[in-house]
Amino acid sequence: MEWIKKNKKNYNWIATFPCDTPFFDKDLIDIIKNCQKNSSKKLFFLKSGARRHNIFGLWSLELKDILLDDINKGQRKVEEWANKVGSEIIEINDKNDYTFLNINTKEDLEKAKKKIK
Q1: 5, 57, 16, 8: which is closest to 36 by C-alpha?
Q2: In angstroms, how far apart are the furthest CA atoms of the chain?
Q3: What's the predicted TM-score (pTM) here?
Q4: What are the pLDDT digits (tens) for 3-58?
Q5: CA angle 25, 43, 58 (to 5 degrees)
Q6: Element (H, E) at 58
Q7: Quick count: other Cβ atoms within 10 Å of Cβ 54?
């Protein structure tokens, strides 16, 4: 958000996705990109089953100053901050156990290797 402001880009939204999810379904990008068209919310997250994925999101740049202020006040947990400002959840019927698999541990890597085989 700061980069957009600093570089005078004319963007109103940013999407966030982790780089360590190799099985992420690219079709979900269109779903999250278009979700704000029918909502007044400024923050959207994907959810599959009982889990909200706070890194897979769409953020209005209108949240920048609120976010920066809260970070400066010590707020560090995305889920708590999102609950405070209000977010809309986009339910994804994830029949694939791998769509949101983050590879952060050796166990995660082994699970990913099984998927590839």
Answers
A1: 57
A2: 47
A3: 0.86
A4: 999 999 999 999 998 888 999 888 888 888 888 888 999 999 999 888 899 989 99
A5: 35
A6: strand 51-60
A7: 18
Nearest-angstrom CA–CA distance, 99 and 16: 15
* Residue 80 confidence (pLDDT): 93
Kindly state the tokens that stand for 108: 């995660």
- Cα–Cα distance for residue pair 15/55, rounded to 1 Å: 9
Q: Report DSSP letters for 1-38, one per residue.
A: -HHHHHTT---SEEEE--TT-TT--THHHHHHHHGGGG
Q: Which CATH class is domain 2-116?
A: alpha beta
Residue 37: C-alpha distances to residues 41, 60, 67 (Å): 10, 12, 22
CA distance 48 to 117: 24
Other CB atoms closer than 10 Å to residue 46's CB: what's the count? Answer: 25
The DSSP element (H or E) to which 78 belongs, if any, is: helix 78-85
Pairing of strands 51-60, 13-16: antiparallel
Predicted confidence at residue 25, as pLDDT, reads: 86
Domain spans of the chain, in order of start: 2-116
Chain length of the chain:
117
